[in-house]
Amino acid sequence: MLNRRVSFWAAIMLIAVIALAGCAPRAGQGSIDADADQLVIDLPALVLDFGMDGMGSIQNAALADLVGTLGVMDVAVPPEVVFAMGASNIQHIQVSNTPEGLLLLVNGRSIPNISYDGDSLNALPGALNTFGVVVPMADLLFALVDRIGIGVIARFEPAPGAEMIPLYVEGDSEAAMAAKAAQEEFLAAVGTPPRINLPVYYGADGSISIGDLSVQEMQEMTGGALGALEMGLGSLSMVRGMGISQLGISTGADGITITIDGTALPTLDWSDGKASNLVELITEIPLLDMAMPGMGSMMPMIHQILPLVQATDFDLTLHF
């Protein structure tokens, strides 16, 4: 255990040295609020530049030598990924940890990210253990996550003639503003946000009921749309063997949240236009339509219905 803790702090110090030498402003930097006697590590973002060969480099050559001396492996991505980034004009991707969540930015704009608070962070190690996922020093990591601010920016060569995009774009994009306006207009029209609540109960024999109705009655009402909820006895036995009696997923204006036995885990945050930024980004990727024909034509429809989906309170709870 002592060796693992030493390795953890050695890694933090290495990140600090690297970030302070080959760095750029980090989204969310300076947002940590802690007492003077508490540990705080709030650093700029480490910038990795990826060439057409896929090899990552740090601008500071002396620093790169230091990293090599410490035995840190080279960072690389497949060259085809670099080509795809250039073809899609994705100039940089940033991952940044803040007290409120893990921010994800593409071309300086936020896309759906992970948000958390103290309760959801405390619940995360137990949830990971339940599903057999082992995170080294999870107790220490999640206890300090709201007081450690670090981030990485992966920067790719822009296409010839492309206008340079700032690492962080202030304000909302046009797509985000349009989405928020559409959501406000929808809520003003309906008054109260729509609500869908689906409590699903599984019997010992695998039978299903939804609220007071049998699954057969619900299937007749929905035209078979709920068939995906059926689970075999083997799957039910596996879930019950994990000690899970209740599994829920809910959506609303803030995002998508999973609960285990009533305890909420970190949220997939799609608020403040983040989902619209993602849809707009996907729309601008020409290679996507080549790989998945017809996907591009679906984006305008998704843009239209997304604000309505986000404004709806949806709750699906599976009882085992």
What do the pLDDT scores average to? 80
- Fraction of helical residues: 25-40%
Number of strands: 18
Return the string of H and E elements: HEEEEHHEEEEHHEEHEEEHHEEEEHHHE
Percentage of β-strand residues: 15-25%
For this entry, what is the oligomeric state of its chains?
single chain
Sheet with most strands = 16 strands, mixed
Q: Which of globular, elongated, flat, extended, rod-shaped describes the shape? A: globular
Task: Output the number of helix runs.
Answer: 11
The low-confidence runs, each spanning 5 or more residues with pLDDT under 50, are none
Structural class: alpha+beta
Radius of gyration: 23 Å
Taken together, the total number of domains comes to 2
N- and C-termini, Cα separation? 37 Å
Keywords: Signal
Essential attributes:
two-stranded parallel ribbon, 23% strand, single chain, 320 residues, 18 strands, alpha+beta, 2 domains
Describe the protein's architecture and organization:
- By secondary structure, the chain is α+β, with helices and mostly antiparallel strands.
- It folds into two domains: about 40-160, no CATH class; about 175-320, no CATH class.
- Helices cover about 40% and strands about 25% of the residues.
- The protein contains eleven helices and 18 strands.
- The chain has helices at about 1-20, 60-70, 80-85, 120-130, 140-145, 175-190, 215-220, 235-240, 275-285, 285-290, 295-310, and strands at about 25, 40, 45-50, 55, 90-100, 100-105, 110, 115, 150, 150-155, 195-200, 210, 215, 245-250, 255-260, 265, 265-270, 315-320.
- It has a 16-stranded mixed β-sheet that branches. The protein has a two-stranded parallel sheet with strand order 2-9.
- The model has no long low-confidence stretch (mean pLDDT about 80).
